[in-house]
Amino acid sequence: MSANAIEVSLVSIDIKICGIHEAEHAKAAAAHGAAYVGFIFFAKSPRNLTLMEAMRLAPNLPSGPKRVGVFVNADIPFIKARVEALTLDMIQLHGSEKPADVALIKAETGLPVIKALAVSEESDIQKADTYSGIADMILFDAKPPKGAVLPGGNAVSFPWGILKGKNLPYPWLMAGGLTPENAAAAIAASGATALDVSSGVETEPGKKSSELIKAFLTAVKGVKESTKLKTVEIP
Ligand SMILES: O=C(O)c1ccccc1N[C@@H]1O[C@H](COP(=O)(O)O)[C@@H](O)[C@H]1O
Protein backbone atom coordinates (compact mmCIF):
# COMPACT_ATOMS: atom_id res chain seq x y z
CA MET A 1 0.00 0.00 0.00
CA SER A 2 1.42 3.41 -0.95
CA ALA A 3 1.97 6.22 1.53
CA ASN A 4 -1.01 8.01 0.00
CA ALA A 5 -3.46 5.16 0.52
CA ILE A 6 -5.91 4.56 3.32
CA GLU A 7 -7.94 1.47 4.16
CA VAL A 8 -11.68 2.01 4.35
CA SER A 9 -13.96 -0.44 6.13
CA LEU A 10 -16.76 -1.68 3.91
CA VAL A 11 -18.73 -2.90 6.87
CA SER A 12 -20.98 -0.73 8.95
CA ILE A 13 -22.98 -2.51 11.62
CA ASP A 14 -25.48 -0.48 13.62
CA ILE A 15 -26.43 -1.66 17.09
CA LYS A 16 -29.54 -0.89 19.08
CA ILE A 17 -29.35 -1.43 22.82
CA CYS A 18 -32.96 -1.82 23.89
CA GLY A 19 -34.81 -1.65 27.20
CA ILE A 20 -32.84 1.22 28.73
CA HIS A 21 -34.09 2.30 32.14
CA GLU A 22 -31.08 4.05 33.66
CA ALA A 23 -29.02 6.90 32.20
CA GLU A 24 -25.77 5.07 32.99
CA HIS A 25 -26.70 2.31 30.53
CA ALA A 26 -27.55 4.79 27.78
CA LYS A 27 -24.19 6.44 28.46
CA ALA A 28 -22.38 3.08 28.22
CA ALA A 29 -24.17 2.40 24.92
CA ALA A 30 -23.17 5.83 23.58
CA ALA A 31 -19.59 5.54 24.79
CA HIS A 32 -19.08 2.24 22.95
CA GLY A 33 -20.70 3.28 19.69
CA ALA A 34 -24.35 2.19 19.75
CA ALA A 35 -26.37 3.73 16.91
CA TYR A 36 -29.68 3.48 18.80
CA VAL A 37 -30.97 3.19 22.35
CA GLY A 38 -34.46 1.78 22.90
CA PHE A 39 -37.06 2.46 25.57
CA ILE A 40 -39.90 0.04 26.25
CA PHE A 41 -43.36 1.48 26.77
CA PHE A 42 -45.26 -1.71 27.51
CA ALA A 43 -46.63 -2.19 31.02
CA LYS A 44 -46.22 -5.98 31.07
CA SER A 45 -42.48 -5.75 30.41
CA PRO A 46 -39.86 -5.82 33.19
CA ARG A 47 -38.21 -3.06 31.11
CA ASN A 48 -41.28 -0.84 31.04
CA LEU A 49 -40.63 2.88 31.40
CA THR A 50 -43.51 4.90 32.83
CA LEU A 51 -44.19 8.38 31.51
CA MET A 52 -42.94 9.86 34.79
CA GLU A 53 -39.73 7.80 34.59
CA ALA A 54 -39.25 8.90 30.97
CA MET A 55 -39.58 12.55 31.96
CA ARG A 56 -36.99 12.11 34.73
CA LEU A 57 -34.61 10.20 32.47
CA ALA A 58 -34.73 12.55 29.47
CA PRO A 59 -32.35 15.30 30.69
CA ASN A 60 -29.72 12.69 31.62
CA LEU A 61 -29.56 10.89 28.31
CA PRO A 62 -26.46 11.24 26.12
CA SER A 63 -26.60 12.77 22.69
CA GLY A 64 -25.41 10.48 19.92
CA PRO A 65 -27.51 7.34 19.71
CA LYS A 66 -30.95 7.78 18.20
CA ARG A 67 -33.73 7.33 20.75
CA VAL A 68 -36.27 4.67 19.80
CA GLY A 69 -39.57 4.25 21.64
CA VAL A 70 -40.95 0.69 21.57
CA PHE A 71 -44.74 0.38 21.57
CA VAL A 72 -47.14 -2.57 21.40
CA ASN A 73 -50.53 -1.81 19.82
CA ALA A 74 -50.52 1.60 21.53
CA ASP A 75 -52.85 4.46 20.66
CA ILE A 76 -51.74 7.79 19.22
CA PRO A 77 -52.05 9.96 22.38
CA PHE A 78 -50.03 7.36 24.38
CA ILE A 79 -47.30 7.39 21.73
CA LYS A 80 -47.26 11.17 21.32
CA ALA A 81 -46.85 11.80 25.07
CA ARG A 82 -43.75 9.58 25.14
CA VAL A 83 -42.33 11.04 21.93
CA GLU A 84 -42.45 14.41 23.63
CA ALA A 85 -41.16 13.24 27.03
CA LEU A 86 -38.00 11.62 25.61
CA THR A 87 -37.68 13.60 22.35
CA LEU A 88 -37.74 10.30 20.52
CA ASP A 89 -36.12 10.02 17.09
CA MET A 90 -37.87 6.85 15.97
CA ILE A 91 -40.79 4.62 16.84
CA GLN A 92 -40.70 0.82 16.96
CA LEU A 93 -44.02 -0.99 16.67
CA HIS A 94 -43.76 -4.44 18.19
CA GLY A 95 -47.41 -5.53 18.22
CA SER A 96 -49.89 -6.57 15.53
CA GLU A 97 -49.97 -3.13 13.87
CA LYS A 98 -51.11 -3.28 10.24
CA PRO A 99 -49.52 -1.23 7.40
CA ALA A 100 -52.33 1.35 7.77
CA ASP A 101 -51.49 1.72 11.50
CA VAL A 102 -47.83 2.25 10.65
CA ALA A 103 -48.76 4.92 8.10
CA LEU A 104 -51.05 6.68 10.56
CA ILE A 105 -48.47 6.69 13.37
CA LYS A 106 -45.81 8.03 10.99
CA ALA A 107 -48.14 10.80 9.83
CA GLU A 108 -49.25 11.72 13.36
CA THR A 109 -45.77 11.81 14.90
CA GLY A 110 -43.66 12.80 11.90
CA LEU A 111 -41.13 10.14 12.94
CA PRO A 112 -39.66 7.17 11.09
CA VAL A 113 -41.09 3.81 12.12
CA ILE A 114 -39.46 0.41 12.62
CA LYS A 115 -42.00 -2.40 12.26
CA ALA A 116 -41.12 -5.57 14.15
CA LEU A 117 -42.19 -8.91 12.67
CA ALA A 118 -41.95 -12.32 14.33
CA VAL A 119 -40.12 -14.95 12.30
CA SER A 120 -39.13 -18.57 12.78
CA GLU A 121 -38.78 -19.84 9.20
CA GLU A 122 -37.90 -18.49 5.77
CA SER A 123 -41.50 -18.05 4.58
CA ASP A 124 -42.14 -15.61 7.47
CA ILE A 125 -39.86 -13.04 5.83
CA GLN A 126 -42.54 -12.35 3.19
CA LYS A 127 -44.68 -10.77 5.91
CA ALA A 128 -42.47 -7.72 5.48
CA ASP A 129 -43.57 -7.13 1.88
CA THR A 130 -46.80 -5.34 2.83
CA TYR A 131 -44.84 -2.87 4.98
CA SER A 132 -42.27 -2.09 2.28
CA GLY A 133 -42.40 1.61 1.40
CA ILE A 134 -44.47 2.30 4.54
CA ALA A 135 -42.22 1.29 7.45
CA ASP A 136 -38.76 2.86 7.37
CA MET A 137 -37.12 -0.31 8.67
CA ILE A 138 -38.18 -3.88 9.32
CA LEU A 139 -37.06 -5.62 12.50
CA PHE A 140 -36.97 -9.40 12.26
CA ASP A 141 -37.38 -10.79 15.78
CA ALA A 142 -37.90 -14.36 16.97
CA LYS A 143 -41.44 -15.62 17.45
CA PRO A 144 -42.22 -15.53 21.18
CA PRO A 145 -42.40 -18.92 22.91
CA LYS A 146 -45.90 -20.34 23.45
CA GLY A 147 -47.62 -18.59 26.35
CA ALA A 148 -45.07 -15.75 26.51
CA VAL A 149 -46.40 -12.48 27.92
CA LEU A 150 -44.02 -10.35 25.85
CA PRO A 151 -43.98 -10.05 22.05
CA GLY A 152 -40.21 -9.39 22.24
CA GLY A 153 -37.43 -9.41 24.80
CA ASN A 154 -37.73 -13.17 25.37
CA ALA A 155 -34.06 -14.07 24.73
CA VAL A 156 -35.11 -16.49 21.99
CA SER A 157 -33.30 -16.77 18.64
CA PHE A 158 -34.47 -17.82 15.18
CA PRO A 159 -32.33 -19.52 12.53
CA TRP A 160 -30.28 -16.52 11.38
CA GLY A 161 -29.49 -18.15 8.03
CA ILE A 162 -33.05 -17.60 6.76
CA LEU A 163 -32.05 -13.97 6.07
CA LYS A 164 -28.73 -14.68 4.33
CA GLY A 165 -28.35 -13.45 0.76
CA LYS A 166 -31.93 -12.22 0.47
CA ASN A 167 -31.03 -8.75 -0.84
CA LEU A 168 -34.20 -7.36 0.73
CA PRO A 169 -35.41 -4.09 -0.81
CA TYR A 170 -35.80 -2.27 2.52
CA PRO A 171 -33.52 -1.54 5.50
CA TRP A 172 -33.75 -4.22 8.18
CA LEU A 173 -32.32 -5.23 11.51
CA MET A 174 -32.34 -8.43 13.47
CA ALA A 175 -33.13 -9.27 17.11
CA GLY A 176 -33.79 -12.26 19.32
CA GLY A 177 -31.50 -13.94 21.79
CA LEU A 178 -28.39 -12.03 20.74
CA THR A 179 -25.50 -11.91 23.20
CA PRO A 180 -21.88 -10.71 23.26
CA GLU A 181 -20.90 -14.35 22.63
CA ASN A 182 -23.09 -14.98 19.58
CA ALA A 183 -23.23 -11.52 17.92
CA ALA A 184 -20.37 -12.22 15.51
CA ALA A 185 -21.83 -15.57 14.47
CA ALA A 186 -25.26 -13.97 14.03
CA ILE A 187 -23.82 -11.35 11.67
CA ALA A 188 -21.92 -13.97 9.66
CA ALA A 189 -24.91 -16.31 9.38
CA SER A 190 -27.52 -13.67 8.47
CA GLY A 191 -25.60 -10.93 6.69
CA ALA A 192 -27.27 -8.43 9.01
CA THR A 193 -25.88 -4.91 9.10
CA ALA A 194 -27.93 -3.90 12.14
CA LEU A 195 -28.63 -5.80 15.37
CA ASP A 196 -30.98 -5.15 18.27
CA VAL A 197 -30.33 -6.60 21.74
CA SER A 198 -32.04 -6.45 25.10
CA SER A 199 -31.89 -9.60 27.29
CA GLY A 200 -28.35 -10.42 26.19
CA VAL A 201 -26.98 -7.32 27.88
CA GLU A 202 -28.79 -7.94 31.19
CA THR A 203 -27.88 -9.79 34.35
CA GLU A 204 -31.58 -10.57 34.93
CA PRO A 205 -34.79 -9.51 33.12
CA GLY A 206 -34.91 -5.72 33.18
CA LYS A 207 -31.46 -5.23 34.77
CA LYS A 208 -29.05 -3.88 32.16
CA SER A 209 -25.29 -4.20 32.67
CA SER A 210 -22.83 -1.58 31.41
CA GLU A 211 -20.17 -4.31 31.19
CA LEU A 212 -22.36 -6.50 28.99
CA ILE A 213 -23.32 -3.51 26.82
CA LYS A 214 -19.63 -2.80 26.33
CA ALA A 215 -18.93 -6.49 25.63
CA PHE A 216 -21.65 -6.62 22.99
CA LEU A 217 -20.49 -3.48 21.22
CA THR A 218 -16.86 -4.59 21.42
CA ALA A 219 -17.74 -7.97 19.90
CA VAL A 220 -19.40 -6.23 16.94
CA LYS A 221 -16.49 -3.82 16.56
CA GLY A 222 -14.27 -6.91 16.25
CA VAL A 223 -16.39 -8.08 13.30
CA LYS A 224 -16.09 -4.69 11.62
CA GLU A 225 -12.33 -4.69 12.06
CA SER A 226 -11.84 -8.20 10.76
CA THR A 227 -14.07 -7.61 7.72
CA LYS A 228 -12.19 -4.64 6.34
CA LEU A 229 -11.06 -3.34 3.84
CA LYS A 230 -10.87 -1.46 0.64
CA THR A 231 -7.70 0.45 -0.19
CA VAL A 232 -8.34 3.99 -1.41
CA GLU A 233 -5.58 6.10 -2.95
CA ILE A 234 -5.58 9.75 -1.87
CA PRO A 235 -4.56 11.97 -4.78
O1 LIG B 1 -37.84 -6.20 25.75
C1 LIG B 1 -39.04 -6.12 26.03
O2 LIG B 1 -39.45 -6.25 27.19
C2 LIG B 1 -40.04 -5.89 24.93
C3 LIG B 1 -41.35 -5.72 25.27
C4 LIG B 1 -42.30 -5.49 24.30
C5 LIG B 1 -41.92 -5.43 22.97
C6 LIG B 1 -40.60 -5.59 22.61
C7 LIG B 1 -39.64 -5.83 23.57
N1 LIG B 1 -38.31 -5.99 23.25
C8 LIG B 1 -37.78 -6.14 21.94
O3 LIG B 1 -37.32 -7.47 21.79
C9 LIG B 1 -36.10 -7.50 21.07
C10 LIG B 1 -34.95 -7.95 21.93
O4 LIG B 1 -35.12 -9.23 22.35
P1 LIG B 1 -34.01 -10.01 23.20
O5 LIG B 1 -34.35 -9.79 24.62
O6 LIG B 1 -32.66 -9.45 22.88
O7 LIG B 1 -34.18 -11.41 22.75
C11 LIG B 1 -35.81 -6.06 20.71
O8 LIG B 1 -36.30 -5.80 19.43
C12 LIG B 1 -36.56 -5.28 21.73
O9 LIG B 1 -36.91 -4.01 21.22
TrEMBL record:
Instruction: Kindly tell me the pathway this chain contributes to.
Output: Amino-acid biosynthesis; L-tryptophan biosynthesis; L-tryptophan from chorismate: step 3/5
Single Gene Ontology MF annotation: phosphoribosylanthranilate isomerase activity
The EC class name is isomerase
Q: Which InterPro entries match?
A: Aldolase_TIM, PRAI_dom, RibuloseP-bd_barrel, TrpF_fam
Q: What is its EC number?
A: 5.3.1.24
- The N-(5'phosphoribosyl) anthranilate isomerase (PRAI) domain sits at 15-217
List the keywords (alphabetical). Answer: Amino-acid biosynthesis, Aromatic amino acid biosynthesis, Isomerase, Tryptophan biosynthesis
CDD domains, A to Z: PRAI (cd00405)
Which Gene3D superfamilies would you find in this protein's record? Aldolase class I
Write down the chemical reaction(s) this protein catalyses.
Answer: N-(5-phospho-beta-D-ribosyl)anthranilate = 1-(2-carboxyphenylamino)-1-deoxy-D-ribulose 5-phosphate
Organism superkingdom: Bacteria
Q: Which NCBIfam families match?
A: PRK01222.1-1
The similarity annotation says: Belongs to the TrpF family.
The protein in question is named: N-(5'-phosphoribosyl)anthranilate isomerase
Q: Tell me what organism the protein belongs to.
A: Kordiimonas pumila
